[in-house]
Amino acid sequence: MLDFNLFPSLDIVEGKALTSRSAIDFTMNKNSIKDIIGDPLDVVDYYFESGAKWVHIVDLDAASGIGNNINLIIKTIKHIDSKMNTQICGGIRSKYNLEKYIDAGCSRVNISSMIFEQPLLCDELFKKHRDKIAVALDVSHKNSKYKLATRGWNKLQGDLWNVIEWLDKSGCPRYVVTDIERGGMMNHPNFTLLEQVIAKTQTPIVSGGGVTSEQDITRLKHLGTEGSVLGQVIHTQRHQLERFIQYAQKLNKNEPVQSRFI
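Below the sequence we write its predicted structure tokens.
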């Protein structure tokens, strides 16, 4: 079984790192309060010092179409240099911006809206960049159907299973699967959804978040996911990041572990 990686999230709004819940609410016009956790460069330094091998960077301004943090994110990529891998998402709707990130040294770029708006371009990008591309499957369960949320989770479109079937045929290298109803809620991953997606495809999967405990990490690894994004739980309980990383490392080495609920 492959190593299970954790992806601490750096959610950026107007140049500042926010808690995941605050960033989501702000960009979906649910709340005007910005719960700032710090300067993005300082936050990513903390992630590295805690032992993280990846950072998941989200441009919430670009996702919602009200601006972007491209220059800051590229500065962050260069600041990290080769110390950590970077996974970037949020509002990447053009080949120009996607390749701008890759050229800057980004390890992986997640796309979402583009699969509906420029499907032929996605085919081209999968072939050209391979593992440097992933598709963010941000899922909403409405009227007994799984729909995909795009445009900063403000627009629902497509059928999840039809989209996965098409993306598999197109050679999509990886999916990042998120239940948007659980975004920033610290309410555990949607294991039922993940199990269904895993049963549908052989494509590698990263869980989009929801982790609140070591038991969640164990279950995600045993399901066969490659890892999970960590957001609200480490933004509000910073001490959890290092503990979760150490726990995942022990799982990867098949060392005895003692898990605890938060």
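The chain has one domain: 5-253.
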